[in-house]
Amino acid sequence: MTVGKHTQRGVTLIELLVVLAIIAILAMVAAPSLIGQIKQDRVNTTANQLSSFYRFARSEAVKREVPVKLALENNDWVMKVVEQGQEVTLRRFTVDHNQVAVNLVNRTLRSSGELNAFSNILISDNDAATDDVRLCILHSGQSWLGKATDNCA
Q1: Which of 54, 75, 102, 128 has the fewest C-beta atoms lying within 10 Å of its C-beta?
Q2: Is residue 53 within 8 Å of residue 79, measured between CB atoms?
Q3: CA nearest 110: which of 50, 64, 52, 51?
């Protein structure tokens, strides 16, 4: 028989508060880097979507053997073709994030996949903490994504 011995089970309120304080400090340290990552992801996602949109338009021009227009309408890039004498909209590219700006221009893809003019499209969120992206499109129709500081030509 043991008298006066008690075994403790569980945690005290002080131990719980110390653990919660440590978690709160770690969350405050991690939050700024997470916000920066989210901003960069918005720029990269928009750039990848724009590049895919352009490549789809180029493939449609070659497949249909007709010119495809990439027209700027209300800050959207609209893919149009002429079918049976009427201009038809095939697809529309809209920037999903209000914080991201894209300087779109009117272009026409020939049925050979060539572009009527060289294009240098900047995708930016006007934040120095993130890296802006540039969509480069040569006259031949070849395209790639690069850093905003890189030269396309």
Answers
A1: 128
A2: yes
A3: 64
Q: How many CA atoms lie within 13 A of 152 on its CB side?
A: 18
For residue 30, being part of any structural domain is answered with yes
Rounded (10°) CA dihedral 89, 61, 118, 144: 100
- Residue 45: which CATH number? 3.55.40.10
Count how many domains the chain has.
1
Lowest-confidence pick of 43-47, 54-58, 121-125, 149-153: 149-153
To which H or E segment does residue 20 belong? helix 13-64
pTM (global) more than 0.85: no
For the range 52-55, what are the long-range contacts, defined as Cβ-Cβ under 8 Å and sequence gap of 24 or more? 53/77, 53/79, 53/91, 53/93, 54/135, 54/137, 54/143, 55/143
List the domain range (segments joined by +) for residue 122. Answer: 13-147
Burial class (CB in 10 A: 0-12, 13-18, 19+), 40: middle
Q: What is the pLDDT of residues 69-122, one digit of tens each?
A: 999 888 888 999 988 889 999 999 988 888 898 988 899 999 999 999 999 999
